[in-house]
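Reminder to self: tokens first, then the designed residues, so the page reads top to bottom the way the pipeline ran.
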């Protein structure tokens, strides 16, 4: 889970993306909280348009605003049953 932050947050976020993108670690769910913030700070589509990342790389990111949205993505990613209804 990545929340709005400064240089340190961006550093850790991009390091994680790079490790997955280059196959140095297996894919895990990466949830970005606060779409408005992140789209103001980083032009993800611009990176694709400039050819510095592939459009498929954007699939490494899942946007969410709430803990429930994040949990739903984690449960789907790992094919977990919804523990709240069990």
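Designed residues (86 positions):
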């Amino acid at each position: 889970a990545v929340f709005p932050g400064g240089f340190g947050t961006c550093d850790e976020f991009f390091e994680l993306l790079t490790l997955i993108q280059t196959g140095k670690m297996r894919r895990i769910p990466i949830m970005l909280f606060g779409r408005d913030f992140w789209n103001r700070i980083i032009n993800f589509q611009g990176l694709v348009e400039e050819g510095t990342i592939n459009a498929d790389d954007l699939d490494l990111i899942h946007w969410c605003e709430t803990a429930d949205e994040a949990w739903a993505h984690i449960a789907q990613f790992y094919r977990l049953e919804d523990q709240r209804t069990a």
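The radius of gyration is 14 Å.
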